[in-house]
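Hypothesis: this fold can be encoded by more than one sequence.
Test: take the structure tokens below, design a sequence, compare later.
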């Protein structure tokens, strides 16, 4: 390993492949990313939550990161940041794709799956992709050898049964004529039914949401258990906890506290089942659980817990005047996400790290562990955080950028972390459960500064005349300027966000909702 890591430049790939055929000491890697799950949805983070016994025990056996952030606060850019190690300002992936989008992840943006597969890893993905559906943008085009999952969010097309949403969705019509009868509920059935891909073919359309967890568990287990002399990489992008919420019958009313709690139990069980396949086969496996962004508050009781990150300034009439403080925003509950790493003999059981870290760091970290270099023809926003994982460092960075993911400012840097200070430039404009969204405001001329170590609820901005304010805003200004310089000098990509019915995924062109296979 040491020889590999020192990076001798003679065909590193050949060396790895030869080495791998002997005994491969490189770890297997499992990244699990849940959808729209709150920082407070995990008991290990927030004791009020009692529905994640297995994830909590994972935290007791591994390392819990308390200050870990998604690369954006909505789906597409967050997933892109994880897979590429780069901010949306570089990859062009700054906002969500729709089910009829023509574009996808740019072909010359390199994913961690491409890097690991070129280093000899077996790779697989399950779950939500949301980085394009057209040819060239499929997971199998971006480094994954096998795939089972849905191409975008589970609310982007009807399903049988419909699952719990707010407002409620109807199930897919059996009769195609219904499709053309626009009704108050028509939003839910304007798009073709939700498809389930198995590699490049559509296995079901509509998918049965209630069966997804079982199918994903089986796919993961088969992949993990298949024998091979090379290590593997599994990226499991779970559909839970995004609306419409659905779970197998086994979880019906198990908590007696409603659909969200029951679905969270199923997610916890799915994580446990993937972990058990890992433990039974090979313990040299880095198992990493995280989520893409915080709760979708517009969905009211069907959205998760923000924990202590209640975004009080935004919520207050004296501050932002109400509106969302989680998904789509730059507030902590939007981008600070659960992150737990289990890697026996490398992470110490039951440790907690407050290092400022990000899902942008996943690509550089995994490349390091696989003994490969990251591409040299572009800049990365993530950094290798192996030292934090193994406990040999308490910090890897002082500065982290949080892009906005709503209110028309998608991709723009809405807040900058400088140590424990958070400098905020844009607030408001994102609806909460009551449909309120405080006015979208720019604070570019006099940003708000919160001191997160003493004010995690972001309630009281520092006085503008305090020396802390002056130092934090000046450091943030310099950090932003150097980010802009690096983006200007970088190879950046552009993304086609146009939408047309040509983008629709349909296994049966004769049916508007694409019901198939027929049975
Ligand atoms: C997907 O493709 C891979 C690689 O060819 C193959 O091993 C796997 O069995 C395929 N999966 C399905 C469900 O066809
Ligand atoms: C769930 O259990 C509670 C408490 O026993 C009961 O009141 C409720 O009707 C049940 N709900 C469903 C959907 O079965
Ligand atoms: C992995 O570790 C667990 C817990 O120590 C142990 O029960 C299991 O047998 C180990 N698995 C393998 C494949 O060695
Ligand atoms: C951009 O790509 C070109 C061509 O691959 C390469 O020569 C150049 O060094 C790259 N720029 C950066 C900043 O890496
Ligand atoms: C800063 O301004 C606040 C409110 O305007 C005032 O109460 C405080 O005394 C000032 N502090 C300094 C250090 O000037
Ligand atoms: C990808 O290709 C586009 C168009 O050729 C180019 O502008 C961009 O810099 C490339 N990105 C990278 C990361 O090389």
């Amino acid at each position: 390993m040491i020889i590999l890591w020192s990076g001798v430049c003679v065909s590193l790939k050949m060396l790895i492949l030869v080495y791998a055929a002997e005994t491969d000491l490189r770890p297997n890697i499992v990244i699990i990313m849940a959808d729209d799950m709150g920082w407070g949805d995990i008991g290990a983070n927030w004791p009020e939550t009692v529905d994640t016994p297995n994830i909590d025990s994972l935290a007791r056996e591994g390392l819990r990161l308390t200050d870990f952030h998604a690369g954006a606060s909505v789906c597409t850019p967050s997933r892109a940041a994880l897979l590429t190690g780069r901010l949306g300002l570089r990859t062009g992936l700054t906002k969500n794709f729709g089910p009829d989008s023509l574009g996808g992840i740019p072909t010359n943006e390199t994913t961690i799956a491409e890097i690991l597969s070129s280093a000899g890893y077996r790779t697989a993905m399950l779950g939500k992709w949301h980085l394009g559906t057209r040819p060239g943008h499929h997971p199998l085009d971006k480094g994954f050898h096998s795939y089972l999952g849905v191409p975008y969010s589970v609310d982007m097309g009807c399903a049988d049964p419909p699952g719990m949403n707010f407002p409620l969705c109807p199930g897919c019509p059996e009769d195609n004529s219904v499709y053309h009868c626009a009704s108050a509920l028509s939003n839910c059935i304007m798009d073709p039914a939700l498809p389930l891909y198995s590699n490049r073919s559509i296995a079901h359309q509509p998918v049965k949401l209630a069966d997804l967890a079982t199918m994903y568990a089986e796919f993961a287990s088969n992949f993990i258990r298949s024998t091979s002399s090379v290590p593997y990489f599994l990226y499991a992008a779970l559909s839970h906890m995004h609306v419409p919420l659905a779970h197998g019958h086994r979880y019906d009313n198990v908590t007696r506290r409603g659909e969200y709690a029951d679905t969270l139990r199923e997610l916890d069980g799915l994580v446990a089942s993937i972990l058990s396949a890992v433990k039974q086969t090979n313990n040299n496996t880095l198992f990493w659980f995280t989520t893409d962004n915080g709760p979708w508050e517009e969905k009211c009781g069907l959205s998760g817990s923000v924990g202590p990150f209640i975004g009080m300034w935004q919520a207050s009439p004296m501050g932002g005047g109400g509106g969302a403080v989680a998904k789509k925003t730059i507030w902590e509950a939007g981008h600070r996400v659960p992150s737990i790493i289990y890697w026996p003999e490398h992470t110490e059981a039951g440790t907690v790290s407050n290092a400022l870290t990000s899902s942008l760091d996943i690509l550089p970290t995994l490349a390091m562990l696989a003994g490969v270099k990251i591409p040299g023809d572009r800049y990365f926003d993530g950094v290798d955080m192996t030292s934090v994982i193994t406990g040999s460092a308490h910090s890897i960075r002082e500065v982290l950028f949080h892009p906005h993911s709503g209110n028309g400012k998608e991709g723009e840097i809405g807040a900058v972390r400088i140590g424990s200070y958070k400098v905020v430039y844009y607030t408001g404009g994102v609806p909460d459960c009551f449909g309120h969204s405080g006015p979208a405001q720019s604070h570019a001329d006099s940003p708000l500064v919160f001191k997160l170590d003493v004010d995690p609820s972001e309630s009281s901005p520092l006085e503008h005349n305090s020396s802390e304010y002056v130092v934090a805003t000046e450091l943030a200004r310099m950090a932003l300027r150097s980010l802009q310089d690096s983006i200007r000098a970088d190879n950046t990509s552009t993304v086609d966000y146009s939408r047309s019915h040509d983008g629709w995924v349909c296994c049966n062109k004769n049916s508007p909702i694409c019901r198939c296979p027929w049975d």
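Residues 279-283 surround 2-acetamido-2-deoxy-beta-D-glucopyranose (ligand 3) (CB under 6 Å). The chain has a mean pLDDT of 93.
Hypothesis status: open.
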